[in-house]
Amino acid sequence: MNNKRDYYEVLGVDRKAGDQEIKSAYRKLALQHHPDRNPQTKEESEEKFKEITEAYSVLADAEKRAAYDRYGFAGVSGSAASSPDFSSSIFSDFEDIFGDFFGFGDMFGRGRGQGPRSRRGADLRYDLEISFEEAAAGIDTKIKIPRSETCTTCGGTGARKGSTPVTCSACGGRGQIRQQQGFFTISRACPQCGGHGQVFRDACSECRGEGRVRREKVLSIRIPSGVDDGTRLRVAGEGESGALGGAPGDLYVVLRVREHPFFERRGDDLYCTLPISMAQAALGAELKVPTLNGQERLRIPEGTQSGSVVRLHGKGLASLEGRGHGDLYIVLQVVTPTHLNREQRRFMEMLAPGLRVENKPLERRVSGRVKDGYG
Ligand SMILES: [Zn+2]
Ligand SMILES: [Zn+2]
Questions:
Q1: d(CA 82, CA 329)
Q2: Antiparallel, parallel or unpaired: β 251-257 and 212-223
Q3: Disulfide engineering: 284 pairs with which of 191, 274, 302, 358, CB 3.0-4.6 Å?
Q4: How far is the CA of 168 from the centre of ligand 2 (A)?
């Protein structure tokens, strides 16, 4: 109890403050600190929100306030002071102040009333182009997203400072208008107040009464290794701000992965074609082959055929589902020499009789034998 702040201090009002002043101080702070509006600092906001709500629940009640003035926290302990169990009378006060501005119905486990409805903010899509290597390794990057955010000048109310809200005449403060259409009754947001249930004589100059402003926000995001072209990453709560205190939407980062100059991706496996000379194919050779993490030594046996495939285990891409890595397949392509000089030609002619093959079509068979590579 010792570290509790004085209720008047919490709401930032004078000890002689009137009911209206207390109410509006609370409204302003509650709008500012509502956890739904501060998804990044949710826990902190919840604490803050509880603190101001507790202060308000005492100071808004004449009896409790008198007790608090006389005896301090001891005068009100066991009642509203033991938050977060807000009493139902306090809840009706909330509705009185905010309507259903925050969707308190949800917060208190009650169904929403007929008050103005909070709306979830729109989801945003951001297309991000990254290199093949970045997709393979994963990266931390920053993106700039233009989006609507709650106006900080008016706390999202849309009202100019000091201007008092007036109950909307069109919807009577419900924020919704019901229309009878044949057998159905349809509710929709009131066009006059935009669903707020209240209108302001003077609109906030920052947001022109919208309660939201366009801002560019820089977000740090982590792109996991193994993402593919078209992979969608969801960043919860980083979409547009909700209307009337609704939860923010989500941000979807859609990845465009640039093609690699020689690696081709199939699932988590990589493919590339590696040219080798006739001599290397015939005699065998030790090669250096590129992988995503540098060079790898690869020994090809003598008598390697063009088109044979060597597999390097685990040298593919990381599986997004966390199932290890794919493999790297290297297709060996024997390159026939095209410009033999006279001496080479003579050697080739000498070799020719011994290299003779039967020029007869091969029987059909599954092609592409795969060999495991060994370094
Ligand atoms: Zn504003
Ligand atoms: Zn209205």
A1: 66
A2: unpaired
A3: 302
A4: 5
The whole-model pTM stands at 0.53
Find how far residue 45's CA is from the centre of its chain.
20
Buried b (16+ CB within 10 A) or exposed e, 124-143: bebebebebebbbbebeeee
pLDDT digits (tens, 9 = 90+) for 35-44: 777 777 777 8
Nearest ligand, measured from the Cα of 209: 1
Which ligand number lies closest to the CA of residue 169?
2
Inter-helix orientation angle 42-59/19-33, to 10°: 170
Provide the token pair at 21: 């002043």
Q: CA Rg, the chain, in Å?
A: 35
CA–centroid distance, 140 to ligand 2, in Å, is: 45
Least confident of 233-237, 281-285, 339-343, 371-375: 371-375
What is the per-residue pLDDT across 168-218, written as a single tens digit (0 to 9) for each?
Answer: 888 888 888 887 766 667 778 888 887 878 887 788 888 887 778 888 889
Of the listed ligands, the closest to the CA of 156 is 1
Sign of CA dihedral 15, 20, 23, 28: negative
Ligand 1 centroid – CA 71 distance (Å): 40
300 contacts 311 by C-beta, under 8 angstroms: no
Q: Is the pLDDT of residue 125 over 80?
A: yes
Compute, in angstroms, the gap from residue 266 CA to the centroid of ligand 2: 56
What is the number of the ligand closest to the CA of 198?
Answer: 2
- How far CA 106 is from CA of 86, 90, 175, in Å, comes to 14, 15, 18
